[in-house]
Batch of 2 targets.
Target 1
Amino acid sequence: MSAPAALSVPAAQSQRRPGGANSTLRMLLRKPTFLAGGVILLFWVVCAAFGSLIAPHDPTAQQLLATNAPPSAAHWFGTDQLGRDVLSRVIVGSRSILLISVASAVLGTVLGTALGLTMGYLGGLVDLLAGRVVEAVLALPVVIVAFLFIVAVGPSTGTLILVIGFVFTPLIARTVRSSVLVERQLDYLASARLLGAGRVSIMATEVLPNVLPAVMVEFTVRVGYAIFTVATLSFLGFGVQPPTPDWGGDIYANYGVLAAGYWWETLFPALAIASLVVAINLVADSAEQVLAS
Amino acid sequence: MTETAETGEAAAVTGATLNVEHLDVTYRVRGQDRQALRDVSFEIGRGESYGLVGESGSGKSTAALALTRYLPGNGRISAGTININGMNPLAMGPRALREMRARTVSMVYQEPGRALNPSIKVGRQVAEVYEIAGASRQEALQRAGAMLAKVQIADPARVMERYPHQLSGGMAQRAVIAMALAAEPSLLILDEPTTSLDATVEAEVLDLIASLRQELATSVLFISHNLAVIAKMCDRVGVLYAGELVEEGPAGEVLREPRHPYTMGLLRCIPRRGQRKDHGRLDTIPGFLPQPGHQLPGCIFAPRCPIAEDRCRAEPPPSFNTGPGRTARCYLHETTSTLPRNTPADIELPAERNSDPPVVQVKHLSKTFRSGGDLVQALAGVDLSLAPGETLGLVGESGSGKTTLARALLGLMAPDPGSAIILDGQLVPPGTGQRPLQQLRALQIVFQNPDSALNRRHTVRRLISQPLARLAGLSGPRLAERLADLVRSVRMEDRHLALRPGQLSGGLKQRVAIARAFAGGPRVVVCDEPTSALDVSVQAAILNLLVDLQVKEHVSYLFISHDLGLVRYLSDRIAVLYLGRLMEVGPAEEVFNGPHHPYTEALLSATSTVDGQPPDRIKLQGEIPSAARPPSGCVFHTRCPRRLEDGTCETSVPPLQEVTPGHLMSCHIPIDQLAILQRSREESSDN
């Protein structure tokens, strides 16, 4: 037994690192941080999908006789200035923020990856010019840029997604570019050129798969930032428009009465934002650790 | 504690600087203990130089780390004793350990660049060692300067003011050696100290170590994968295999008459004494190193041993005494000399060559880079040609333009205008993008490092299918058929197809790279140091494969290597480059036997071989000059030991002289005079 077993060592070596998507998922599931983040995230995703079914009340129904009611058995999170159930608004409000942040992060990641790949792989003048533009955009505060756009175009879900997506593009492009520069040192790109492969084909089929892990990590981080940005813009009145339930918007609508002691009207939406951001960062962190190992 | 004292006394009596007994080291990997060293015992006497040789994964570096207790967090010395100068590092507290590392044991690693702190000037770093020993700052700097002079740094004052990145590799390694010796250690551990250096620089650093060792009477533990270096540097040698010391003894005897089949196998894997491919294939060691921690009931080498018997597989052999001071862990140590070959030697080489018109020619190939404000000429007007089915060896130090030449030929880098690459009589455009499919197919490469040359996200199937589809235009069942063919011809198996490069061993990865290069039916394959990242036993198998494929496919090779033994084995003709200029080109045997160019002569004499080296080595003075400011006249004149007195070499570019038809060299010295000079040197060194 021993001799043939030892001779077939390459088979044993091949099992050393099973590789592939399965093992990545398995390693992620072994991380408590990932599990914690994942569970919170899953909760909000369920709320976003089936919010109106879960919510105990109609989130937009006003009860003008029960305004500013503190948390009670009927209204766990109390009611707001218009007598709307805060719990229901928090549950249903997850939909708009999740939708906008994920969509804008996707948009930013796709555009940023394309831009970063092009800059990193082509280098030279393209890299130089695009690099200057990227730096210029990065120098401006995200919220201000988004502000200007929204004022010019007018607030709507579509505008928000586009604006945040565009603002994130240079950030992602910068990360992808630096990964591509590492790959560009490697001989497999020369090898692909010797097969007569063109630039676009090399970028898409050779370089992209190798920078994808970095892109995935960057994407999750961006979703977290997008939530912040959406909440901030909503708070400033440029986000999701009332009466649609929205966390940032609800804080904006109710923070004026905070001084009067009606804390539940702002605290619960704020906690919702915090929990979602923390959850996404936990997922992003563990993904980064697993992919780096 | 009393035990320690006793062994200490014992060591003091025998006079050994280092005594290691029954050392076991285990690494804990994913909750499992894996044994990296098993029952290793050896001793280094005062002033003695001991070589530890083995392939990657044999446990060489683990041994060095264990001695100084620098093992990583998951490593543990699970049994055995270590005794350094009567002290037991295993029983030391942190303070005593620090003291020992500062005064008694020094280490020099493979990469000098990593051993030096990049943000501190070299002088301060060396001086620090003296400061720790209690010298004042001023005195320390003075002694550092003296030490740098001792390691033959020409201008210590200037070097001390430099930062590590401003030094060349050889210079940096000297500075590291100066630091290691500054504390006057009784044991110096050298872990592959010259592996990253050029052959000429390696020879100088080795000479330096040898002379310092005599002067300081330091004991040396020399770790290397390179048998030739061990043969040159060491009094005694220990051969490590999979964590076991399989053979030990005086270096000369062990390497001349090995008693363990593994040592024998290793020695047969290297081309020696001018061996060439027409003398037959190299022998190989089949199989693979067992996984770390993989326990075998019998001899650890039995699965790969051609003469293993039942008892070898049943029970581990003890250490047999095979001569004065010699041991071998092999039941059959008496029959090792008649070890059968693992690989048949026969190769059918095609009889006539070189009569056909050349496949590829490069004419006046130049390449100038712009670096900062300087123009750096990496290649300056090189003319070469390659006949069908021929191997042209390309030789030169790093920075000589070998790789630039290869990349220009392949179209990965456009040469300067005026250069011409001619394939089958047709001018080839400079970039891959402009070349027609047929020309792309004709020129392919096997890169030095398969980790970098293979896309790690693709499977082997995809990696090999890609060129078949793109270059050979195959698809569907015909592609599958050719794929199976190709996989067989590089001696891989179907089960490898689903794996990714990260799951393959180094040798298998290089086979995939070779399969890719041959997929389109190439005319010329550039082999850029194809085996330098591989172990000796794997190297032999890859070289055999290259020879077999050449015979079968009738391709030409441009074989780039710093290992002259390999070049000699594989090449029909040899071209020698220096600073981007062709110094010499000619049939391999003529270039090796001479008369040859003084630069070739120096390269040859710098090469260490297992069978000993020329005693009076030609020493090249100084460093290879910067290509941005090449010397006037003959570019080699600044380092040439045979430079003419009358100043011709400094002022005029030498012509290409014809030694014999097809053997050209660029030198002012008349051929017959050069022949006399070189013959007299060889004769004097024979005596």
Note: Chain B touches chain A through 50 residues (CB under 8 Å).
Target 2
Amino acid sequence: MPLVASLLAGLVFGLGLLISGMADPAKVIGFLDLAGLWDPSLAFVMAGAVAVGLAAFAFAGKRTVSVLGEPMQLPTARRIDRRLIGGGVLFGIGWGIAGFCPGPALTALGMGEPQAFVFVLAMLAGMGLFEWLERPRTGRVIDGIIRP
Amino acid sequence: MRIDWTAFSPWPALAGGVLIGIAAAMFALLNGRIAGISGVLGGLFRPVAGDIGWRIAFLLGLIGAPLVYRLFATLPRIRVDAGYVALIAAGLLVGLGTRYGSGCTSGHGVCGLSRLSPRSFAATAAFMGAGFATVFLIRHLLRL
């Protein structure tokens, strides 16, 4: 049952991206281009999503288990540090270059767009690079095995 | 500031936004999780038993959305102006940045702002600011 709910949530999310215009990089760039001909549409996407989200998370925040009995795993981190801001800035630069952020890129991939395919491959490589840079460094590799 | 009235589409934007909000609400209330795409995808790089299926299911829904959409209507056309070199650079930055920043437009933007999280407000300000600055640089200073 949680798997079905997960699939449905992903599906509704993707439909929202398609209907709203978020899945179209040209529209995203039109929103980010304040100094050019500005298309404010995407502010309405955020407004619609957050309006629903505010009510949902106010309710979800009080629960310890989900409606389906799953443990609530909402974030607890509160620190605002260099990693958070630096990561956000790197992401924003990439977003501004191509007009793709992770969700819309995956939905555009489902549309069979070759450019989305290339972007997603590079994004996966970027995530892999993060894992490599942040790999545990405490152990020493002896005979190909990390020993503490 | 000049508004692009021909491209401006407040109603589909609002309706799509509400759907995105409903999806995030479903995921939080039914699965107890944050619908943050970079986090859902990134978690697969360090797979933990029992923590894989829901990620795959969510991503399949997201990728499969155009197939379902096509059953009812013609898919909207999308346009990607970036060339392949730019797409690769952008993808690397988005992958790396969203993992270091612990989230993207969905996790920090939609869910974080809805949770009134100061951390997500800061992250959203960082990536929106960088997005605005990057487009200004590319379109108006470098004129690429």
Note: Chain A has one domain: 2-147.
